[in-house]
């Protein structure tokens, strides 16, 4: 399947991922309130450490190794079974370790913590990395859409007041478990039943750990924020940060869906020796990611003041400040996603990738240590921005020989000008119309229109931008039919 089709399938799912929280977040935020939302997020942050340790990098490594051997069905099947049996041993050990922690050491929120075990069982049965490796995104998207819709229905039907937090946790955790179990039905016909040895299984341990090591740093600045806020500040502050972060990730998912699609394609392209083709993919992906990420950054910062009050309620007003601070990370994570996920990982440059993410993790931990106690969620958001800046600049330095920085800088400046002008319009509309859903819709529609118009005018006169070239290519194909 082509990159464009895979991207569209993944984008379809990411749009659903964005739309469903747009429906559930206003409801859940008003029903569970910041404390309930924060309790769920805090306990989920703890479970994520055990999920991460249980997978031990197998999800990313498995994606790559399946992509590299997918032209040899027997070899691919051997890799699948040996990797999954390794995953099974590790994840079951992780479940046992978490249950010991939850039963004997967690005193506050013990019930919610125990329910979260269900989502950990979902990791035990997860084989989605195989489908990413063979680029079968349609099946993954279909599964996720069905599960998300059923979860949405269950939340609105069963969660009615703050005391229903356990029910909400059951719904969220069962959706993870069921999603993992369903994928096993799709495996039929894709792999051969082969016998694997313990030696084959163990042979994957060392390379998987190579992918696990940088993942430790990613856990530190993706999850540790919430854990530290819960320990140092309060569950309510966790809830504020978590929901602001959810909005940011909704916007970012439009860009990161491209990276999900490109990882197996880049791994396969490098594996068969098509280096120039891989570079072409990389350059196009970088420009397209920048084209998308910059208006998302300005858009999120521009609509926050009018969006948060009607969307989440007055209990989450502090989310406005947190979201505005977090907005620049959309661009930073888009770039690091291209350099890290689409270049360093497929090419096996794990040392360089590890250096970048550990630099970010160290910065994030230090800033969090200084700022979370006095400033809570705002301090954690500053730490997140500092971490992403560090990762991006380190990666920019490490890939300086392959990335055409002159072209990148020129195109980025054009997009920044268009995005800034869009932000001015969005703020003028917001101040004029006030807080309402209609205001947010008008801001988004006008903002998108202004940004796209300015970019297309810029590229029309230059006639060398990627967006212009791709539009011409598409039109020529359409005319030739």
Account of the 3D structure:
The chain has one domain (3-403). The protein has helices spanning 3-55, 58-69, 73-104, 110-115, 117-124, 128-133, 137-158, 165-182, 198-203, 205-222, 224-232, 235-271, 275-312, 319-326, 329-344, 350-375, 377-398, 405-433, 437-462, 466-480. The protein is globular and about 70 Å long. With 481 residues, it is mainly alpha-helical. It has 20 helices and no strands. The mean pLDDT is 84. Helix 5 (117-124) runs parallel beside helix 8 (165-182) and helix 13 packs parallel to helix 18.
Summarize the structure.
Helices cover 85% and strands 0% of the residues.
Global morphology: globular
Number of strands: 0
Largest beta-sheet characterization: none
Percent strand equals: under 5%
Number of helices in the DSSP assignment: 20
Average pLDDT works out at 84
Taking pLDDT < 50 over at least 5 consecutive residues as the criterion, the unreliable ranges are none
Structural class: mainly alpha
Helix content: over 70%
- Provide the gyration radius in Å: 22 Å
Summed up, the domain count is 1
Terminal Cα span: 21 Å
Provide the succession of SSEs.
Answer: HHHHHHHHHHHHHHHHHHHH
Properties at a glance:
globular; Flippase; 0% strand; transmembrane; 481 residues; mainly alpha; transmembrane helix; 20 helices; cell membrane; Polysacc_synth
